[in-house]
Request: fold
Amino acid sequence: MAKRETENPGKSATGSMLVKRGLAEMLKGGVIMDVVNPEQAKIAEDAGACAVMALERVPADIRRDGGVARMSDPEMITGIQAVCSIPVMAKARIGHFVEAQVLESLGVDFIDESEVLTPADEAHHIDKLKFTAPFVCGATNLGEALRRISEGAALIRSKGEAGTGNIVEAVRHLRSIIGDIRKITQADSAELFEWAKRLQAPLPLVQEIAETGWLQVPLFCAGGIATPSDAALAMQLGAQAVFVGSGIFKSDDPAPRAKAIVEATTHFRDPDIIAKVSRNLGVPMTGIGMDKIEQRYAERGW
Amino acid sequence: MRVSQNSATKVVGVLALQGAFNSHERMLSELGVATQEVRTPQDLAVVDALIMPGGESTTMSQLLESSELFEPIKKVIHEGMPVFGTCAGMILLAKTIFDGRDDQVSFNAIDIEVQRNAYGRQVDSFEAEIQVERLNDAFHAVFIRAPRILNLSPDVEVLAKFGSDVVLARQKNVLVAAFHPELSEDKRIHEMFVKEI
Reply:
């Protein structure tokens, strides 16, 4: 557990690691849905989303349109905040700390420093410890996750490959992160130095994993979830909640699909319920194979 | 499920539809109490008490209906099962929800009126020391997009305040907290709840 940053008995303190991670804890077992306008935000909330991610284009459209993808228009984010009673997240470009400052000033509940947007800095991520708002960051492996945590991320999501409707990369990343956590819990103290070197991650964080058996923050799954079974797969592999981007609003009939994914995420170990909620949802997003992709977003991040 | 040491026959259920249920489970197991995640009416049937965790009350409200848990839980609470709601759990147990969704369900189990997200957005979430009745030392409380008790009936016992706001309260078998005792390392409030089962 992160150490409290404030020692202020009798008074209240905002923005501590405990408070930031606290919101991540509250999102567990839930579905965070990408939405591009207030109407979609209402549909998401009505379907039982535990939070929404406000952005101008879902990843499938960013992929199709190309060009530079940036933080959304503040007007659009405010419009979504106005209709939602659940937490509203929004994305900043990797390393673009001014976009993050703007999102914090808008009162965004969680800032996603996201590889789905075009990176602004090819060497540095945002110093997230400087912010009051919590950050979520993507990771493809445990080293990347621990570097983001050392920079102050309060939540890690496996990256997957956003905008593809293809779960294969999310599975690869989850297995890599959780598999290495399992191995570290079996390592002896001398081996932990080598693990830290190999992962390019701070030794104290690696030692903490050996002790507790888990990351310092929750681990969610993103990138490629299109069906209730996809969501339950991520949960059974060990993700603690799921982000669904293009998978809902790029499908034929978003509202029932959104609700079905919410129910499958809760009842992820119960195939009877997953079967029941998967019936008659219409056509999911078409999706693309990894061999057809020109730009892998998951490769962004350092 | 874990074998308990000091209350061997009792099982505390933790509503596991969405939210911080595993933090509660961890705390209970550290106290040596057996736990059961509750997602279905079958799960509910084996528990002697129930914790409703923090999370999104609107999400839980819909999942209570779709999982066919709302009526069974309402019944066991009104029959006297000890129940403890933190944050979103407090909202679900309240008699009246101010600023809730029109279709949001509530168990009407404690005579309070609560307002959701009453302290603001996440940037306003905070931690603070509070003084709890019957506990000697201060309790470190974490408030995440916390609800506020706007009104309470004289039948509701006040157990802690933050400033002028009541943040821990009890009426008969129902205990509610606006904050998250499951997020700090301090087990005393869980202990208080478990003792009364």
In short: Chain B touches chain A through 46 residues (CB under 8 Å). Chain B has a mean pLDDT of 94. Helices of chain B lie at 21-30, 41-44, 57-66, 70-78, 88-93, 188-195. Chain B is about 25% helix and 30% strand.
